[in-house]
């Protein structure tokens, strides 16, 4: 029974609609027969104010284009409405109506969370949500002692190991959270370890370093790849480019912190010195989703001496925190020259021809018809524009499309499809290119 319930989708299908219908029934039961028109008017004002405030907050942190589904704002408004009804109607209400009124507030909040999940695809199924709540550790997680024991024993574990790490920010002064490193079975073959290639994994705008492992199912994907290649796979570092969940840095050095310096001057040296990975730029790549895709392009074209391949999954044309003017103001304090230093088109034009740099741009096609949630901010246009420009400057680029939406489910599928190509570029032999639609 649980196996069936665990596979029920949370981003589409019947369950989200059933929860919404049940919640609407509670709202009606809590609000009717009050006989207090003024209270309902105040509740409506409170709900609208909460929705407007939430909309303003999301706009302020720079989620450009506001592609959020419209029902999100309705459920936020109803959450505020029900909270006011519960408080103002408490004294004269019967005990059962008080319980219903109180219950409507978290119920409407849950519906708002479901709408956010429909938007970003953070929890694709019931099981993924339960696992996240019940198990704080990420898949394959171990501690440093376990890693050391396996290494000293020259073990060949059946799957890789994910290790939480605290990386010094001495070079960047960027306040960040703990990050994570995936070590494939081949890493444990010797002491010191073999000089494996490394992939830097960067998540979306609203993020934690573990998102690729939880929402993107990255550990299972890498484990499957390693199993098919005798335990060989790159080392993966799941970085923190924002420092907090809602600090949209776009991986630049600016008013929101020196994110780019952290990734290049803190993370890369740490990986080389602590895990013995190869320092050769031909063995370093980047995989990014949404904001992380934008970061992958920026970092690679700005620092080609450090990275040789990248995958941009549904990223933007450049640092994006609203309109161009808003982005310059929010990210760089109004300094347009600083913005130009991180704009991929400007960077490529200034650099000139690149050598031995490869790229894949992956975007949802939306399937049959036009799905506005496939490319809510023109990521398909961005991919084709950047790819054409990259090829002009000698970058081996291609655009790949699959049906899907701008959510974590698509990111997970894109990662699994492009990992063989990226691993091959970084020196893991015997990894043929994926069968994809490239243009």
UniProtKB/TrEMBL annotation:
It is found in: Secreted. Keywords: Hydrolase, Membrane, Secreted, Transmembrane, Transmembrane helix. Its main location: secreted. GO terms for molecular function: acyltransferase activity, transferring groups other than amino-acyl groups; hydrolase activity. The chain crosses the membrane at residues 14-32, 39-60, 72-91, 103-122. Pfam families: Esterase. GO terms for cellular component: extracellular region. SUPFAM superfamilies: alpha/beta-Hydrolases. This is S-formylglutathione hydrolase FrmB. It comes from Mycolicibacterium fluoranthenivorans.
């Amino acid at each position: 029974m649980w196996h069936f319930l665990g596979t029920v989708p949370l981003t589409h299908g019947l369950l989200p609609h059933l929860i919404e219908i049940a919640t609407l029934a509670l709202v009606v039961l809590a609000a009717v027969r009050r006989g207090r028109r003024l209270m309902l008017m105040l509740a409506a004002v409170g709900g609208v104010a909460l929705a407007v405030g939430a909309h303003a907050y999301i706009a302020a942190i720079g989620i450009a284009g506001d592609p959020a589904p419209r029902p999100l704002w309705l459920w936020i408004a109803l959450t505020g409405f029900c909270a006011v009804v519960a408080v103002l109607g408490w004294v004269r209400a019967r005990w059962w109506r008080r319980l219903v009124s109180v219950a409507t507030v978290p119920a409407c909040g849950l519906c708002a969370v479901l709408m956010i999940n429909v938007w970003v695809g953070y929890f694709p199924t019931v099981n993924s949500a339960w696992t996240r709540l019940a198990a704080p550790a990420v898949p394959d997680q171990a501690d440093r002692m376990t890693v050391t024991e396996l290494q000293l024993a020259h073990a060949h574990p059946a799957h890789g190991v994910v290790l939480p790490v605290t990386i010094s920010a001495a070079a960047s002064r960027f306040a960040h959270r703990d990050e994570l490193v995936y070590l494939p079975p081949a890493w444990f073959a010797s002491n010191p370890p073999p000089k494996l290639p490394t992939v830097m994994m960067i998540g979306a705008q609203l993020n934690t370093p573990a998102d690729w492992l939880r929402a993107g199912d990255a550990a299972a994907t890498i484990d499957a790849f390693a199993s098919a290649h005798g335990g060989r796979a790159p080392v993966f570092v799941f970085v923190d480019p924002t420092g907090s969940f809602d600090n949209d840095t776009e991986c630049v050095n600016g008013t929101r912190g020196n994110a780019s310096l952290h990734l290049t001057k803190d993370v890369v040296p740490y990986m080389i010195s602590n895990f013995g990975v190869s320092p050769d730029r031909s063995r370093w790549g980047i995989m990014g989703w949404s904001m992380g895709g934008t970061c992958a392009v920026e970092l690679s074209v700005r620092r080609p001496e450090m990275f040789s391949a990248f995958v941009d999954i549904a990223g933007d044309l450049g640092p994006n925190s609203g309109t161009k003017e808003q982005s310059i103001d929010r990210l760089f304090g109004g300094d347009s020259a600083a913005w130009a230093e991180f704009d991929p088109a400007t960077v490529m034009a200034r650099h000139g021809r690149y050598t031995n740099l490869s790229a894949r741009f992956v975007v949802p096609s939306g399937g049959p018809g036009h799905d506005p949630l496939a490319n809510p901010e023109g990521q398909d246009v961005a991919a084709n524009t950047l790819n054409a420009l990259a090829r002009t400057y000698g970058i081996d680029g291609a655009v790949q499309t699959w049906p899907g939406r701008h959510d974590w489910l698509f990111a997970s599928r894109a990662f699994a499809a492009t990992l063989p190509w990226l691993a091959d570029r970084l020196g893991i032999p015997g990894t043929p290119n994926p069968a994809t639609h490239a243009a």
